[in-house]
Amino acid sequence: MPTGPDNIVVVYLGEKQTFVQPSQTIVARGILEFGSWTDRKPASSACCGCVMPNMRRSSAMLSLDLSHVSVSYPGLPTPVLDIPSLSIEAGSRVAVTGASGSGKSTLVNILTGLERCASGAVRWGDTDIASLSERSRDHWRGAHIGLVMQDFHLFPGLSAIDNILLPVRLSRALKPGDPDRALMLLYAVGLCRADQTVETMSRGEMQRVAIARALLRKPGVLIADEPTASLDSDSSDAVARLLIDLSVSNDSTLIVVSHDPRLTGRLERRITLSAGRIASDRAHREKAA
How far apart are alpha carbons 179 and 185 in whole angstroms? Predict the structure, then answer.
């Protein structure tokens, strides 16, 4: 392995190895681990010979503790969600499954603060988001939760990188390093054309943009709601690998709501909901591929 100063970056342009300073802006065919020295060859899963950059975050991952959470709606005889207790350790990779109407969507809304539960506590780390106002929950979610949805929620007419940066621009939370991080994330998910408009992309490519957008602010938690439901088999496998690999490299707790066994089977733990309650909760021995 070559040795060299820590402030050198190795870039592969196809098969050619080049050394540059981290301060240089590279819009080419790949970026390797800013601030580190490496001799690894380009990963086969990356686009145009790109190698996934090292993007570990400095702040801690978040653990989850639910206690006496109950969600009811007028006209319904029983709660749509009723969870006396649930704990998820920081850094876990967890699947949530269940039939339609089992409470999965309500659980996602509660965990992300999109909906406030009138009863119980939803504690991420030291913060009980159930006790926050709607505005405070929105602010907290933007800072700590990366959300990937089945329908992508991308804006036609905007490029891939502009879609990634749009939420922080609209919330006036754009930081000087965000455009560079957005570009790095695009390479990490296997996309090389930052200026490509999303309406010219396949559904698999659009979901990759959505994953990159969810990770822009270095969230402590990544939540994906049926992320492979509208994708073909090959795209589903690629998205499943990306969610797991990037949650690890970004130090994010991962919670995936899905019916897809190719995705749920890669995760360490599976929680099954039925009629708004936890019907089973078991660990998986197999590791993500």
Answer: 10
Q: Identify whether the C-beta of residue 239 lies closer than 8 Å to the C-beta of residue 225.
A: no
pTM assigned to the model: 0.78
HEC letters along the chain: CCCCCCCCEEEEECCEEEEECCCCCCCCCCCCCCCCCCCCCCCCCCHHHCCCCCCCCCCCCCCEEEEEEEECCCCCCCCCEEEEEEEECCCCEEEEEECCCCCHHHHHHHHHCCCCCCEEEEEECCEEHHHCCHHHHHHHHHHHEEEEECCCCCCCCCEHHHHHHHHHHHCCCCCCCHHHHHHHHHHHCCCCCCCCEHHHCCHHHHHHHHHHHHHCCCCCEEEEECCCCCCCHHHHHHHHHHHHHHHHHCCCEEEEECCCHHHHCCCCEEEEEECCEEEEEEECCCCCC
147-189 pLDDT per residue, tens: 998 888 899 999 999 999 999 999 888 999 999 999 999 999 9
pLDDT recorded at residue 278: 96
How far is the C-alpha of 194 from the C-alpha of 75, rounded, in Å? 48
Does CATH place domain 91-116+129-283 in 3.40.50.300?
yes
185 φ/ψ angles, rounded to the nearest 5 degrees? -65, -35
HSE-up (13 A, CA, CB side) for residue 65:
7
Nearest to 236 by CA among 255, 213, 215, 256: 256
All CATH 3.40.50.300 domain ranges of the chain, comma separated, are 91-116+129-283
User: Hey, which residues does 221 pair with through a beta bridge?
Assistant: 145, 253
Sign of CA dihedral 82, 86, 91, 92: negative
Note the Cα 7 to chain centre separation in Å: 29
